[in-house]
Amino acid sequence: MRIDILTILPELMKSPFSASIMQRAQDKGHVEIHFHNIRDYSTNKHKNVDDYQYGGGAGMVMSIEPIARVIDQLKSERTYDEIIYMTPDGEVLEQGLCNQLSLKNNLMILCGHYKGVDERVREHYITKEISIGSFVLSGGEVAASVLIDAIVRLIPGVLNDETSALTDSFQDGLLAPPVYTRPPEFNGWKVPDILLSGDPSKIEKWREEQAFERTKQRRPDLLEE
Ligand code: ADE
């Protein structure tokens, strides 16, 4: 997979991809992440990327010209499966959408700032608008980092133990059951006996029950779906 990120703050986005699973995914060739600084595509002498909004009102708007220049350039080089805009008024990100996006070859992600981008960018270039939740961040970069992390770990081969993505919370519509490791007792707090029983079918059944109970308690909405 190739991901092209359009941002005015590339430095804000580099560290989440420079360690652990995300770095390994790049080293192993599962994903290439390219940053494009929108400011480099501004043609005015101050390298402005924003302007006052028509009709008045507080807050600047990201201009269409530099963004159109980057997108046109990238589209002339390859075909994109999706051109995504990170925005609080987009479709709220869920595991199902992450699964779908993890199967794509080329994704472009535009990170918004200020009051957002000129609506014509959204109408004419963007194919999908994604929100990571009902709150407003100071820019789309952190949201894009969340999206990319959630997608990249699902690319086959990225996680060492393939089953560990399959047993994530949400993958089967339920939250994940509790997990424990050594020691079997700490401060008098014990690991449930069943996990030490060595009986795989009992353990499996216990995990299913726990996953169901936890979902019923914490996210009953998932059971309604
Ligand atoms: N940009 C600002 N807030 C955001 C959010 N909640 N999701 C996606 N992009 C955003």
From TrEMBL:
GO terms for cellular component: cytosol. It catalyses: guanosine(37) in tRNA + S-adenosyl-L-methionine = N(1)-methylguanosine(37) in tRNA + S-adenosyl-L-homocysteine + H(+). Pfam families: tRNA_m1G_MT (PF01746). Its EC number is 2.1.1.228. The keyword Cytoplasm applies. It comes from the Bacteria. GO terms for biological process: tRNA N1-guanine methylation. Keywords: Cytoplasm, Methyltransferase, S-adenosyl-L-methionine, Transferase, tRNA processing. Belongs to the RNA methyltransferase TrmD family. Specifically methylates guanosine-37 in various tRNAs. Homodimer. This is tRNA (guanine-N(1)-)-methyltransferase. It comes from Taishania pollutisoli.
